[in-house]
Amino acid sequence: MEFLRIVHGPATLGHIDELVALYAAVFTAPPWNETGDDVEDFRRRLHTDADRPGFRAVIAGEDGFATSWTTTLPLPPIRAYQRIEAYLGPDQVHELLGGACEVDELAVRASARRQGLGRRLIEAATARAERAWLVTSRDAPDTMEFYRRVGWRQVPPLPGDRAAYGDLVVFVRSEPAGTHGVRAV
Q1: Annotation: CATH topology of 4-176
Q2: Closest Cα partner for 16 from 35, 52, 40?
Q3: Distance, CA of 110 to CA of 169 (rounded, Å)
Q4: Domain layout of the chain by residue ranges
Q5: What's the rounded Cα separation, in Å, for the pair 138 and 86?
Q6: DSSP 8-state class, residue 54
Q7: Which of 85, 67, 66, 86 is nearest to 76 (CA)?
Q8: For the chain, give me the number of helices (H) and strands (E)?
Q9: pTM of the prediction?
Q10: If 0-12 CB within 10 Å is exposed, 13-18 middle and 19+ buried, where does residue 163 land?
Q11: Tens digit of each residue's pLDDT (9 = 90 or more) over 120-164
């Protein structure tokens, strides 16, 4: 069993090439089908995300990684946050997301799946957090099933126009995760 390395804040940028390579290996494949531009956008985002409160990257060698941070409110008008607000509404955003651990990325190489690595990564990324949340795509049913299997709950969207949030799905985890084989660096 490979140990997980946890890197906090800007120290993550010392691992940027490793993380970008893993991101490309996972997210350019179906169902995500991201492009080279999306991969470069991830590289640029890491430079900003590493400065977010509570930022951590959990790295499992060449097999996978997770990134997370503490959500601050109000949600900024970037990325998918406006669609998340349409999905949840302001009351649930405040109740479920404010101050919670936000899992931004969870990436596991296809060759390392179904061995418990995804579970270990998400547990380490959310360790010691009372509440945690993440967003995925309705177009990734295997990913949604994984989150359910590891104890996360899908939050139903507000009634209304699905066009406001599209394929977005919000999951929450309310009980603190354990840590298994985690070594801080």
Answers
A1: Aminopeptidase (3.40.630)
A2: 40
A3: 22
A4: 4-176
A5: 16
A6: T
A7: 85
A8: 5, 8
A9: 0.91
A10: exposed
A11: 999 999 998 999 999 999 999 999 999 999 999 999 999 987 888
